[in-house]
Amino acid sequence: MPSVLAAPVTWLGGSAVLAFNVTVLMGLVLTAWAGWRLVLAWTGSPPAALVAGALTIFNAHVLSRLPHAMAAHLWGVPLTLLAADRLLDHPGSRRTALALILIVAATAATSVYWLALAGLVVGAVMIAGLATGRARGAVVAGGAALAGVALALPVLRPYLRLAAAGGTRPLEIVAQFAATPAGYLTATSRLHAGWTSMFFRDEVNVFFAGVTAIALAAVGIAAALRAQGIPAARRAQGIAAASVPGTAQTPGASDAGMPHASGAVTRRRALTIVGLAAVGVFLSFGPATALYRWLYTWVPPLHGLRAPARFGYLYLLAVAVLAGFGVRRVVAGRGPWRAGALTALALALVTLEVTQAPIRTEPFEGIPPIYDVLARDAGPVRLVELPFFPAEAVFENGEYQLNATRHWRPIMNGTSGFTPMSYRRRAAVFWFFPREGTIEAMRAEGATHLMIHFDRFTPAEGAEIRRVLLHRTDLRLLAADGRGHQLYALR
């Protein structure tokens, strides 16, 4: 889905960097909107929805992963929760069922991690429905979710093929990307980085939700568990009052934190959220728990997930939603000015606690025009970018992948969460370029062109490469530029 959103930028001539930046910004907006929409529907309180929407996207874990475009596109998880929960009370709503199908399909097309989280959300809602006598709604929600997965099968098929080919994540690797209990006390914000630095391990293990958010969530839980049923006439009165922030609510509505929901529905939703938080925290520990190791054996989709820490987002989403309940409780019954001031204060505090500005960025000077030579080449192209990094440094290929968007011809370099054996095999030889035999190995692998980045070699290595190239008759220089790039064709 992020690529669909970025496509117009590319079609209009924008660079891949611009497309990436637009994609991230759109993801931030959509995810904040999804959190806002969920809490507005559950509480009827714009102040509660505003704070919850901010917390849904602006939290320690997401903000530490901005280079990952998919990290900003979490909108599918709260929207799945909203649609699935609505089906419990309105199982005959075809519109809601269709919405859930499309949301799950779009989530699957965005990230298999977020699909896993959406699956847990639907499972939790189904359990809540069965426990509260809403079996029909639970079945409809589960069926709609499965239909959404089926709809996304064309997108999921490559993952299935990879799994069938042995593309699994060994538990030893998975353990490296798991969370720890200390991670839930770790922040990267300017306000909390000092006292949480003792717990910091890496940017994957960052889940401190913030003092204000946790305090508001505690208030929200207490209000939800004390929620009382509200007669229909008084619920209607509460809905009308909730349309204006800070207006007085009906007695009981302020306790519920949800003026248009019965006490039972409020408690069901709160307990569902708390359950999701607990499951998310537990699964985020990965192979550190015996249950995860057992699930890894018997639940095949887990074989493809490298970073179980991502499950911790369910905890942060739960804090966001429950904090919304808390804001609703705090502002209920207060005048417009006081309610507005309290809302602004809450929003300012939760924002301050996650602020990481300024975010370091790299200037983009454009993709070197030398790659246009490849775009114009009428023959077959299979490019090798040099240096060809070893598997443990595969992330260094990011520049090469960006450059490929200027010519769109096949390259042997690449980076992703899974490094195939073909790359490992080639890197074991190509990394040692220009040693004897490396160019012959590239030709044997089907390479047709070499792009040498002299700026990424040391001066001594660059001198050795130039000496070797002077004596090679099987390489033809096609182009060179002032940035240290030289493009060769293999004869």
Strand order of the largest sheet: 1-2-4-3
The shape, in one word, is elongated
Task: Note poorly predicted spans.
Answer: 229-259
Helix content: 55-70%
Order of helices and strands: HHHHHHHHHHHHHHHHHHHHEHHHEHEE
Largest sheet: 4 strands, mixed
Cα-atom Rg, whole angstroms?
26 Å
Short description:
The chain has 491 residues and is mainly α.
Describe this protein's structure.
About 6% of the residues have low confidence. α3 packs antiparallel against α18. The protein has a four-stranded mixed sheet with strand order 1-2-4-3, with no helix packed on it. It is elongated. It is mainly alpha-helical.
Task: Compile the SSE list and pairings.
Blueprint: H1 2-11, H2 16-43, H3 46-57, H4 60-63, H5 69-72, H6 76-89, H7 94-108, H8 112-131, H9 135-151, H10 153-164, H11 171-176, H12 193-196, H13 211-225, H14 232-242, H15 253-256, H16 263-284, H17 290-298, H18 313-331, H19 336-354, H20 372-376, E1 383-386, H21 398-404, H22 421-430, H23 438-444, E2 449-453, H24 459-470, E3 475-480, E4 485-490
Parallel strand pairs: 1-2
Antiparallel strand pairs: 2-4, 3-4
Helix pairs in contact: 1-2, 2-3, 2-6, 2-18, 3-18, 3-19, 6-7, 6-8, 6-9, 7-9, 8-9, 8-16, 13-18, 16-18
Task: Jot down its keywords.
24 helices, 4 strands, 491 residues, elongated, 4% strand, mainly alpha, four-stranded mixed beta sheet
